[in-house]
């Protein structure tokens, strides 16, 4: 049996769509159709039947599935034996830019030390598109604020984060903004949609509003956009501290009660068959777990202005 037929069968089982299976494997749809024809001859079964939106595996295909995956896993393991254990090439990491600001450099350094032949490639992402980008292999591993629910993804929580406010102009008391002062000041909103953020969602519940002067969709230039203004930005705590240290900003607790949220790693379940990718996933998980456990701004006990 041609091993490529098993790869195509596995892609069809995973995607339940011939076009997506072809894209996933980097081959033409006609090649997928031809392979399916050969598989049907071998197993004397349709294996997949057309339904609205794609293909549905038959009971025979479902019965065959674990055996095909065992064969593919065995082939991958045999190839690993002939390769340098750490010769991986590159790994594509999807990160929200708050994670990249706070931990990107440390992740790169640690990966390069543990896997000398790897080249990390960081790509920016946000929760609305992360699932799709993982499934179409735009990146291998995603690191972000969680909230992914696709059943084809493997997820692992590594800790929690919360929010801090940062501003070039400190609070009147030099310690933390009161809610009154917070609502009187103008704000820089950072949101993927540019219209509503976590603060606004909580304020709306009590019929309150803040004054938004401007919006941006990413965190990396927050300190530059705050320069020369009295604007307040409310951003993830791990990124807030880095930006405050970098630009001498005041940071403090947010007077609007915002719930902590999980930091998660995710990858496609099909990547679980790649031992090297799993090794990197576990390595980054342990690394971030240690960072988040030790990171004081995640549950801030003090407020400060860096001058």
TrEMBL record:
One of its GO terms (molecular function) is DNA binding. The keyword Kinase does not apply. PROSITE patterns: HTH_LYSR. SUPFAM superfamilies: Periplasmic binding protein-like II, Winged helix' DNA-binding domain. Residues 1-58 form the HTH lysR-type domain. Keywords: DNA-binding, Transcription, Transcription regulation. The keyword Plastid does not apply. Belongs to the LysR transcriptional regulatory family. This is HTH lysR-type domain-containing protein. The lineage of its organism: Bacteria, Pseudomonadati, Pseudomonadota, Alphaproteobacteria, Rhodospirillales.
């Amino acid at each position: 049996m041609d091993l490529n037929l098993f790869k195509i069968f596995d892609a069809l089982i995973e995607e339940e769509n011939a076009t997506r299976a072809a894209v996933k494997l980097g081959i033409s749809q006609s090649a997928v159709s031809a392979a399916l024809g050969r598989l049907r001859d071998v197993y004397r079964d349709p294996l997949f039947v057309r339904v609205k939106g794609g293909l549905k595996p038959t009971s025979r295909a479902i019965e065959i599935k674990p055996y095909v995956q065992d064969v593919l896993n065995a082939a991958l393991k045999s190839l690993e034996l002939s390769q340098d254990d750490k010769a991986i090439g590159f790994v594509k990491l999807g990160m929200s830019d708050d994670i990249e600001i706070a931990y990107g450099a440390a992740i790169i350094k640690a990966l390069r030390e543990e896997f000398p032949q790897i080249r990390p490639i960081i790509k920016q992402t946000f929760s609305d598109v992360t699932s799709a980008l993982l499934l179409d292999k735009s990146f291998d591993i995603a690191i972000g604020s969680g909230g992914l629910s696709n059943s084809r993804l493997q997820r692992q929580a590594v800790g929690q984060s919360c929010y801090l406010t940062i501003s070039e102009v400190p609070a009147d008391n030099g310690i933390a903004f009161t809610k009154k002062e917070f609502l009187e000041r103008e704000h820089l909103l950072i949101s993927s949609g540019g219209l509503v953020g976590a603060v606004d969602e909580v304020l709306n519940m009590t019929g309150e509003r803040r004054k938004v002067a401007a919006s941006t969709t990413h965190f990396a230039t927050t300190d530059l956009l705050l320069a020369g203004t009295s604007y307040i930005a409310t951003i993830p705590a791990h990124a807030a501290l880095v930006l405050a240290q970098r630009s001498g900003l005041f940071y403090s607790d947010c007077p609007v009660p915002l719930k902590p949220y999980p930091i998660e790693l995710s990858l496609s379940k099909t990547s679980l068959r790649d031992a090297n990718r799993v090794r990197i996933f576990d390595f980054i998980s342990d690394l971030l777990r240690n960072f988040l456990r030790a990171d004081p701004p995640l549950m801030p006990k003090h407020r400060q202005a860096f001058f």
